[in-house]
UniProtKB/TrEMBL annotation:
Protein name: 3'5'-cyclic nucleotide phosphodiesterase domain-containing protein
Domain PDEase, chain residue ranges per copy: 1-101
GO biological process: signal transduction
Domain of life of the organism encoding this protein: Eukaryota
Record EC number: 3.1.4.17
Top EC category: hydrolase
Keywords, ordered alphabetically: Hydrolase, Metal-binding
Lineage: Eukaryota, Sar, Alveolata, Apicomplexa, Conoidasida
Matching SUPFAM superfamilies: HD-domain/PDEase-like
Any coiled-coil regions, as ranges: none
Amino acid sequence: PECNIFTHLPPEDFQIVRNRMIDLILATDMKMHFEMVSKFRLRRNSPDFCRTNDDDVWMLLRMCIKGGDLSHGLLSWDSHVSWSYRAASEFYEQGDLELAQ
């Protein structure tokens, strides 16, 4: 509780922040990778793409999060392998938790 940076937010604003955080986390799901990248390319090349449009801004933020999530492939081989191992371990742990429920 003492580390909760959202305690000052009214419930409605907290829900907005929570939903947006969930949206950004789900943007890292590889199941939707190619569809998301295709939609971004189409939208980015559109003449009405606008950096002040909320939908366009959120699409760009999703792509930034996705880029950060996948960027370990650009590191040295040892670092890349280390991060890949961490990700795989996390996936297996999550699978084990879901099986246990």
